[in-house]
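Deviations from the work plan: none for this task. Representative record:
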Amino acid sequence: MYRYDSYDQAIVDARVEEFRDQTQRRLSGALTEDQFKPLRLMNGLYLQLHAYMLRVAIPYGTLSAKQMRKLGEIAGKYDKGYGHFTTRQNLQYNWIKLADAPDILAELATVEMHAIQTSGNCIRNISSDQYAGVSADEVADPRPWAELLRQWSSFHPEFTYLPRKFKIAVIASDDDRAAMRLHDIGLKLVEPDGVVGAEVYAGGGMGRTPMVAPLIRDFVAEDEIISYLEACLRVYNRYGRRDNKYKARIKILVHEIGVEEYRRQVEEEFAHMRELGLNPPTQELARIRTFFAAPAYESGLSDEIDRSNPAFALWVDRQVAAHKVPGYAIVNISLKPIDGIPGDASAEQIALAADLAEAYSFDELRVTHAQNLVLPHVKKADLYTIWQKLVAAGLAEANLDLITDIIACPGLDYCALANARSIPLAQKIAARFADAERQADLGELKLKISGCINACGHHHAGHIGILGVDRKGVENFQLLLGGSGAEDASLGQITGPGFSEDGVVDAIEKVTDIYLAERENGERFLDTYRRIGMKPFKEAIYG
Amino acid sequence: MVEFLSFRDGESAQEPAVTVESFTGQSNATAVRIEPGEDARELLPHLDRISLIEVNFPGFGDGRGYSAARIVREAGYTGELRAVGDVLVDQIVAMRRCGFDSFHPAKALDDAAVDRALNRYDDVYQKAIDGRVPIWAKRHPETQNG
Amino acid sequence: MKILTGNDLASGDVIWWAGDGWSRQVSDAADVGTHGDELARAEEAALRVVGAYVIDATLDEDGVRPAHIKDRIRAFGPTVRPDLVEQPTEADIGKWVI
């Protein structure tokens, strides 16, 4: 875990006081809403349907038990007793009072957390792989790079009024668990000749014009990554479109001028910028890396798990992933109970997750872009105890990557931009497919729901995706098939005319029936779709 | 309230700034104004005869002027670099960091608020144009010898 | 009818113009006729509301019902958290929102 030094702490503390000052100016009338809005957004404070909403950054998805406990306390003290984990490793509080916001930020600062740049046309929270540091196949832990980028991007003087928001993800495994290529810039750490550097992808994103990011450079050394990114951002800041907010993301620039031309401009700028001394010395990344050293794992632990309790065995098979150290496991905690709200956790559940991390996971937690939690360093011998505690807290759903592990944005129940409600639909789908055997039989099936075209629910990247639209004041849902946010990234295709809420649940059932009838030896839903194409599904749905 | 703010020693340039197009087409002007979307690099061959570059911000949300400022400073321009237009107090610090050394906002700024903004943050994470030593360099003083 | 809604500046609560002040209950909403925009500007300037806007609504025996689902959800609260709703009612609330 990274720990702030006095420099980091001073910056976050100063930000709290700056926002306190801005908030007081707003409450006293010295600032109009038009003037205040960009200031509050730069600090993650939105005005949503029912109240102010505060989005707190969880940098690269890593949290200490103490930080998690604080998030739960804030949910209880300032909100209505819960929080919502988002698809970009942030936490949202839905019921914040403006006057309380500075105090909440001050409390967050006591545990080295903040809401800096969780909104606005700036570089947002840097996201990463929830298995960073514990998966066997990674080239290096991506989080030191992400922390280096967090610091570089915080209050960047040149890139705070970009054409549009800018999202960066860093991964280091061939398995992409962070939807890296659906980010404005994605970095994948590689080690071609014994030296770790980054492959750089640029121009991915979702929204109304989804794009999978192309590779723009196959290697950037660690001591040049900052100047290279400055070059990428400068080209975007100067030439990204500003005439239409829907065409302002970097993906449109890369698409319109072409990958080759974007790459050429970046290289030209990079040749200039690499000479300016913008890169921290390698000692700085080395310093950050020391904070992410492996915890003091015990050796000689058994890999045996007592599977005599069938419900526990089912949970282990579904929620537990391989850890690189013998005797240890990665535990995924589902925030997708069948009748729950995807990504929501009560203050008590958040506190329990903190307790579990403290007792069983070297004080550490992760949050995932799929809106679940992870205990990254659990002794296999402790799994049963943890499972029992999760069962008692309603957190033991065994559905990781199954059809009921639904990603859903807050939708029209909370969001001022939404056209349709995502959560009730997610609940209806989960109820329809609740049967554990049925889910297991369907296997990996990533279902993602967005309540509007902005695609916070990643519907383009769902094996099955759903987009809510407003049809003359009535909620309507379009169905998409064939998307993926993983290493085999692809964009889903719309099946055809949209459906009512119940209609789309029926359509999904027809789609899964076709899959079950057509699949061949161990194919996932996505594989079958890619092999047989849209037509049979379309016939089943509309035929 | 402050209508004009300068961090330069001595007088500010008074000559009216001309457009980039008319500047590059004539030889006697010494003050030029860059609009968003114009290429600051067009000025680079002429920097030694420029005493004032104005960068216009028609709306505070259009951040192209920050890049324009850095580009001319990175090329060695030492004359006055002035931000004009929709320049707000909450942006002065970032503009200073990008090399602006004078400000002529469309709406006057509150002096006290400017002071507070300029003194809010003791340290910065990035190397930019203003010569402030970034935090990473302070953390590793042994790497900063020349 | 035309009604005026927005959020309380300090608390963020959804509020409805009730004729002589703001209410948290949509059932108190008053017809603002053609004065909505003018009222909105005055109330925003007085720091009592943020993001005020005029909407269409109907009035029947069940009370005031905003025309658009988004405003009905604002009036009711998140439909997925009936434990948090702002407007207690005996009616079939699901139907009221949809």
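The helical segments of chain C are 36-45, 69-76, 93-97.
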